[in-house]
TrEMBL record:
Coiled coil: none annotated. One of its GO terms (molecular function) is aldehyde dehydrogenase (NAD+) activity. This is Membrane protein. One of its GO terms (cellular component) is cytoplasm. InterPro entries: Epimerase_deHydtase, NAD(P)-bd_dom_sf, NAD(P)-dependent_oxidoreduct. SUPFAM superfamilies: NAD(P)-binding Rossmann-fold domains. It comes from the Bacteria.
Amino acid sequence: MNTGKALILGATGGVGNAVAQALLQHGWQVAALTRRDAGETRTLDDRIEWRSGDAMSASDVTAAAQDAEIIVHAVNPAGYRNWGSLVVPMIENTIAAARKTGARIVLPGTIYNYGFDAFPNLSEDSPQNPVTEKGRIRVALESRLEAASREGVPVLILRCGDFFGPARGSNWFAQALVTPGRRLKAVTYPGPEGIGHSWAYLPDIGETVAQLLDRRDQLETFARFHFGGHWDPDGRALPRAIAGALGRPDLRTKHFPWSLVGAAGLFMETPREIYKMRYLWRHSIRLSNEKLAMFLGKEPHTPLNVAVATTLKALEVR
């Protein structure tokens, strides 16, 4: 068991909370930076020490991280908005805090930093030639972390597919495929039939990060791993799992309204940024977890039917 302390930036989000829960299970003391006041934090997990502050404030992050061995950087601008002005400054604040405290930075990564030349099978060393501005920002973010690692700041990056799990966060499962709190009339799927897609179950991500940190003395200073998660080879495995979990095998699958989102994007930032991610659904993209499985022995993996059923119950979908 661990006796160290981890600071989570973004602990109220899906990934941040999943990592926090796993670290607690592995014996870590967990603190979290939040902009909520003391009254609001009383309704949150009381096993976590909630520290007031903002990830956009270098002094707040450094103060919160003063006794941390690990800083989990799981914070992102909400709704795909303001990436250009927020993402890089936030990581700079985390790097500054880690440099002062000696902490290792943990970053939950994405596949945005890859382009068509790297598809369909992504390894840790695949070329990074992104096709969107968000992708270019992710490349810049990881490049900045790699540079910091050469200056003595240890880094761990775990790149994942699309998140899903028992949290009403910003992810395709909870915001497109199903509607939380409602009876499902149809599964709305963003991709065409026959195109493979990678999904990442949040509790498995958290457990993977915790297991990697259990072996942190064996990690490279700049360590990168790909999380295999659940591979849907034809874009129909997840809809079938949803129908099965709800006991409604005849539940139909309908197409995501990309044209409407594109039209709305002419006037609003969030749908505009969502529309730019369409290419990720038009190409089969799979993350190779060979390096991760070799390092851990095997990747933490919840069966798809169990993961989907647990997610639907938490989201109150029926």
